[in-house]
Amino acid sequence: MHSISPLVWLSFGLLALAICAVWLKPVSLGGRLVVAPWLALFTAALIGGLAGGVLTPLAVAELALFGGVAYGAGSAAVGRGWRIVLLIVTGVLALALAMHRLPGFNNPQLIAGVRFSADATAFSQYANFDKAAVGLILLALLCRRAGQGADWRALARRSLPVAAGTVVVVMALGVALHVVGLAPKLPAYTPVFLLTNLLFTCVAEEAFFRGFLQERMAATSTGRVWQVGVVLLSGLLFGAAHLAGGPLYALLAGVAGVGYASAYALTRRVEAPILTHFCVNMAHFLLFTYPALAPLA
What we know:
Layout lengths: L5 H15 L6 E2 L5 E2 L1 H16 L4 H17 L6 H19 L10 E6 L8 E4 L2 H14 L6 H28 L13 H29 L5 H17 L6 H21 L3 H17 L10
Helix pairs in contact: 1-2, 1-5, 3-4, 3-5, 5-7, 6-9, 6-10, 7-8, 7-9, 7-10, 8-9, 9-10
């Protein structure tokens, strides 16, 4: 693992806590002053990122713009026409930030060129503040989330079978296509990988593809055919987003995306696809070749 300064670790730690704090209720500080815990922690993460060199003032301004647009897109006070415009701008900015197309971010590299098994391709990982911040803002402002205990129990009851089925189908297909092979392992890097994958990858991708895109596509019609089409389209878009890994990798991502979209369709809560996505990624990392089998020489 690369050497990273304590200030950088602090900024990403605060960002991780901010994501977790989305499920906490706002705190009253007396009078009319009410503070959302996630927003307070995110502000602290931004300050830490500036101090640690992860962010420039331009990056903070870009995130503030994205947050403002997303807030407007979710506001009931905004007219339908303006809401559509703001949703489109939100989507464009989310993609630009998540794909690292906007300047001002100095995302640290956690590991470089590591092979977790002898037959695996080399793997590198960055801690991406821009992508994680997109997930946080979408999650907090535009995603349907679970509330009370009964909501969580219903979500678990409906999504756990989908998660298990998605793991089996995706990994079996991966083995059949010779993209991965069975390779159980528990490297020292496991805790960092799983934590960053859950909070900075699964949350961000599911908040965008399911909580933001799929929710709004599904809301346009209640017809059963349309709802099934939305699930398939959501999976197709997710697969297309992974084309950089090659056609077979994109195919597996598309199949997985249908599983994540199905979990969302059954619950209409973003936690269900996040859980399903994380189960697939965890099984892939711990039990199979990661990220993929190296081409034969």
